[in-house]
Predict the structure.
Amino acid sequence: MLPTYRPGERLVVRRVSARSLRDGQVVVLAGLGHRPPADGQPGERAGDEPDMSPRWIVKRVAAVPGDPIPRDTVPALRTAPGTRVPDGHLVVLGDNPERSHDSRHAGYMTTDRLLGVVLRKVGQP
């Protein structure tokens, strides 16, 4: 999420439901290969093989369920069916488009990966 957040920075995150998300908010999602377990605590599920992908990813919400699909700015969704972002899905973008692996490449992110909304960096008022 450069330049907004740097790798290793600590963030204050508030757990929220996907229904409360708005465009422009910065969210933390479980990384590829990781999903929050049923108890809501981040980590790997018992019996899962370790995965070398990031445990958490930080992205900015570009569209929530019910919003128009942003086909012009998200190439991976140009051929997505329908006209609206489906329930259970989000469109998220990194602030550094040249280096970010986000919905522009991967398409929708599912809301079951949502850990929370970033409030601020640790140490900031």
Residues 63 and 91 are 5 Å apart (CA to CA). The radius of gyration is 14 Å. Strands lie at 11-14, 26-30, 56-63, 89-93, 109-110, 114-121.
